[in-house]
Design a protein that fits this description.
Oligomer: single chain
Largest sheet: 5 strands, parallel
Protein name: ATPase AAA
Structural class: alpha/beta
CATH architecture of the domain at 21-150: 3-Layer(aba) Sandwich
Helix content: 40-55%
CATH superfamily of the domain at 21-150: P-loop containing nucleotide triphosphate hydrolases
Shape: globular
GO molecular function: ATP binding; ATP hydrolysis activity
Domain ATPase dynein-related AAA: 22-151
Amino acid sequence: MADMDTTVTVIDACGMAKVPALLLSRPGKGKSSLIRGLAAAQTIPCEVVLGSQYEPAEIGGLPYLDPNGSGVQREAPAWAKRLVEAGAGIVFLDELTTVPESVQGPMLTVVLDRVVGDLQLPDAVRVVAGANPPDQAAGGYDLAPPMANRFCHISYEPTVDDWLHGMSTRWRTLPLSRAVVASTERMSATVSAVMGFIHHRPDLLDKFPQSPEERGRAYPSERSWDMLARALAYVRADDQPAIQTLAMGLVGEGAGMEFVQWLQHADLPDPEAVTADPSLVDWAHERPDRVWAVLNGVVTLAAERGTVEAFRKAWKPLGAASDAGVKDFAAAAARTLATFRPANARIPAEMRKFEALLKSAGLLSEDAA
């Protein structure tokens, strides 16, 4: 269970990463009050959508024939139009476990693609949902796997102190978020960490649950690991409660806890520091999963920056790893890095160590230095 501070932080981090968040608790725990309070604190609108009150066509947009000859269009509901007009806000999909699967289907595009009818919601609009356990919801339904796998599931259990504070302020004052603005360096580090773990445990990349109950919760998939890599970039590297909540909320308790434990023991170096000084890593004696993670962090950082200088510098750690005998991992990273070569970038000396490989892959066609 996440405390109030961590809950606010994770919702904020998910919002900045464009990852939908789902608050889960027993009835009467104040989920709606919390979300409305977050919106009020940011002075943005909060549109509450009760999917159980909608027909499938209303969520997806009611079809109509455009009199101007553009064919069939889909009319978005009023709440979506208000958010588009405001340019920011929160879509709060309340009582999600009371929504039948026939309505959950059209809600999928709202949750992940942020499309309602023919309207694209602005980037500053965040998607948050609230739900009780299906057996404690009115006419409860398990979440369909495609819906469940689109959310970061946050088990919400406010303490007595949280409730007392909320009552005293009439829920107008909430803890400050610990989320941070993601830097290029932090993003490359979180991407490389997730990739390193999956290299270590490839069987956890996509593990569809066996029981219907588990399919309505967080579970590992290519999508949820990608969302985890993005969301982690918006929390500090030392914020263990937020990291654990994100990991368990996106890829499930088992895979999430294993990832957190691996991350703590991996103690991965900063990709920027390794790019500047490849000797920081003992390439010949390092664990394979760490080598894989570090090299991919270096490549991701160069790709994110997209400059000629970043491209040229990134080849130094790859060359050092190859010279130390870690040729397979270095070659895999080289293939990826070569695809991000800026048009005006000349070939650095370290890149020539992979010349035959890159030519055979069609990624290198010139010999000019």
